[in-house]
TrEMBL record:
Bilayer topology annotation: Peripheral membrane protein
Location of region: Disordered: 1-34, 307-342
Protein name: CRAL-TRIO domain-containing protein
Membership in a protein family: Belongs to the SFH family.
Location within or outside the cell: Cell membrane; Golgi apparatus membrane
Main location as per UniProt: membrane
Pfam families given in the database record: CRAL_TRIO (PF00650), CRAL_TRIO_N (PF03765)
GO cellular component annotations of the record: Golgi membrane; plasma membrane
Keywords of this entry: Golgi apparatus
Gene3D superfamilies noted in UniProt: CRAL-TRIO lipid binding domain, N-terminal domain of phosphatidylinositol transfer protein sec14p
Organism: Acorus gramineus (Dwarf sweet flag)
InterPro entries the record matches: CRAL-TRIO_dom (IPR001251), CRAL-TRIO_dom_sf (IPR036865), CRAL/TRIO_N_dom (IPR011074), CRAL/TRIO_N_dom_sf (IPR036273), PI/PC_transfer (IPR051026)
Amino acid sequence: MSGLEGALSHDERRDRKSDVENSEDERRRTKIGSFKKKALNASTKLTHSLKKRGRRKIDCRFPSVSIEDIRDAEEERAVNAFRQELIAKDLLPVRHDEYHTMLRFLKARKFDMEKTIQMWSEMLRWRIEFGADTILEDFEFTEWSQVLRHYPQGYHGVDKEGRPVYIERLSHVEPDKLMQITTIDRYIKYHVQEFELALHQKFPACSIASKRHIGSTTTVLDAHGVGLGSYNKSVAELLTIMQKIDGNYYPEVLGTKYQSKLLEVIDSSQLPVFLGGSCTCSDVGGCLNSNKGPWNDVEIMKGISSDASTAESGSDVDYLSSPTGSRKTGCSRLAPVHEEDT
C-alpha cells in the first residue's frame, strides 16, 4: 500500500471506489446509447430507401447455401418502424432481433403498432417467467415414447413448398391414459420446447434444403368427430392452454391444411398412408415416430450450427441484427444482394 493510500480515510477510499464504479456505469450507458443511435439511424436509411422499391429479394447466406427471401416493401417498412420502437423502449433482445419474428407479431395484430408492442412485451415477460429461452437445454420429456401411444403426433417430412409437416391425430387421443403418463405442466413444457426446436432447427434446416426462407409449418389435424367435449377436463384444459400459448407467443407459425387438399400441398411420399399418402416409415415404427425431415441431415445441421457471422452482406443495417453475438439459426443479418421492383 502506498503512503497516499494509507493516508486516505475509509470514507475517501469508498468515495474513490464509487467514482470508479460510476465511471464504468457511464461508459456502459454511453456504449448502449451509441448502439441505439446507430440502429435508429440505420433503420431510417432503410426506410428512405424502401420508398423507392416494390419488393426485395433478400439473399441470406449460410456458410455454403444462398437462401432466397422475397420481402414486401410495405411489410419491411412496418418491421423497420416496429424495430425502432422496440429499440427505443429497450424491448429488443439480440436473440429476438429477427425480421420474420417481428413480422409475425405485426401480422397477428394487423400491423397496429401499439397493440403489437404490447403483445411483444408480454411475450418477453412470458419467456422469462416460463424459461423458454433455455428450455432446449433445461427440459427433457422422458415420457415421450409413452405419450405418443396415447396422443399420436409428430413431424413428418415437408410439403411441396419445403415447409415441415406436423401431424396430430386428435381422433386417436386417449385422455385418461395420457394423464396417467404425464402432467399438464410437463406436456406444456414439451409443447413449447417443440416450438423452439422448430424455430432454431427445423425452419433453418428446411430453408437450407429448399434454398428459400421457411418460417411456418403445415399442420395436419386429424380431428374427425372430435370436440373439446370428447375429452376429460384435464385434456380439455391442456388443449386450451396450448392454444393460448400458440396464439400469444408463437403467432403466425402454423398453417392448417385439410385432408381434401393434402395431396395438393404435400407430395404422396411425404404423407402417411393413414392420410392418403404412400409413406409408412415401417423401419422406425410408423410415420409419427420417424421425425423425418431435412433437420436430420448431418450436413445441413452442420451449416446451422456454424457461426452465423460468416454470412455475407452489403446491407446498411447489418449490425442491427446481431450487435453483440451471432445467431445459430435463420438469417443472421439483413443482407440485400439482389432487388426486384414490381
